[in-house]
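Hi X.,

You mentioned you wanted examples for the new student's onboarding notes, showing what a folding record looks like when two proteins sit in one file. Here is a clean example. The first protein comes first, with its sequence line followed by its structure tokens.
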Amino acid sequence: MPQCPGIKRSGERCAVIVGPLQTYCYQHDPARAQDRRRYASLGGQSKGNGEIAELKKQLKKLAADVLSGAVKRADAIAINQIINTRARLIELERKVKDIEDHEERLEAVEGVLKLRKKEA
């Protein structure tokens, strides 16, 4: 069986065995470079990062307003509960996106495995 000719970061040759219709493994396939960049940058591009920063600003301001007396304690408690709910929704959204991405990648791997079984 053919072996991927890619070179790992360590300088060693990639040890992944590729199918007869493939030259490279997923990590070294030049045609998949855009997919790899997209997956690698998902965390940096996620909507949640901006939202989390905004929630942190709101909490900081809320704390300052409570300490200064501009916001009543009871109001601050309610606002904090809303902020916590938003934070949980952001985390849930991130988990759903991760699951969808993993399902997509798993389907691709299953497709390759089915192809290999047919060829064998």
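Then the second protein repeats the pattern, sequence line and then tokens:
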Amino acid sequence: MVEINDPALARRHRQAAILSRMMLAVIGSLHSAYRRKNVGAVFPELMISMVIRINDDEGKPPLHINTLAKLVKMPRSNVRRALEYLIVVGLVKKQNDGYVGDLDFLKARLNPPYWLDALAAIETAADELRKL
């Protein structure tokens, strides 16, 4: 165990550990339902799908590939390949000249175990951070 004598540093260290535990649980949960590749290889697809879900939630128009590439800070060619796969698995669909999330994908997975695990990890982290 690391001994930390500075209270501010100890608090920050604890916050980092709580967030790290949460992120590992969330990413692991999402990846468990997305067993195509190792998590590092899947991460760009996860990031792109998350940006699209946020955009949809905010009621914005479909995202163009160039905008997605800028938002996730990836080459356009990588984003294009990821989008092609996300369309094949049904997570994303092309709408006009942009991309949106496919609600049928979510509808078919309203409360899967991996999602409940991710939500539990977030709730645990929020509780632990509030107690600090």
